[in-house]
Amino acid sequence: MPASDQHKLYIKNKDQWKLVRDCVAGSEAIKTARQSEASDQGGLHNALGSQYLPVPNPNDNSQDNIDRYDAYKKRACFVNFTGYTKDGLLGMIARKPTEIELHPSINYAELNANGEGLSMQGMVQSIVSELMETGRDGLLVEFPVSSGGSRDQTKGLQAVIKEYPAESIINWRQTIVDSVKITTMVALAEEVEKISSDGFGVEDVTYTRVLMLNENGDYIQRLYNEDDDLLVNADGESDIYITKSDGSSWKEILFEFTGSENNSPKPDKSPLYDVAVVGIAHYRNSADFEESSFMVGQPTPVFTGLTQSWVSEILKDGIQLGSRTGVLLPVDAAAMLLQADPNTMPAAGMDRKEAELIKIGAKIISDQGGVETAEAAKIKFAGQNSKLGLIIINTELALKKCFGWMMEFQGGEGSKDDNVLNINKQFYDATVSPQLLVAQMQMLDRGVIAKSDMRDTMRKGGVLAHDRTDEDIDGDAEIVSPI
Question: Which of 157, 194, 331, 467 has the fewest CB atoms below 10 angstroms from its CB?
Answer without folding.
Answer: 331
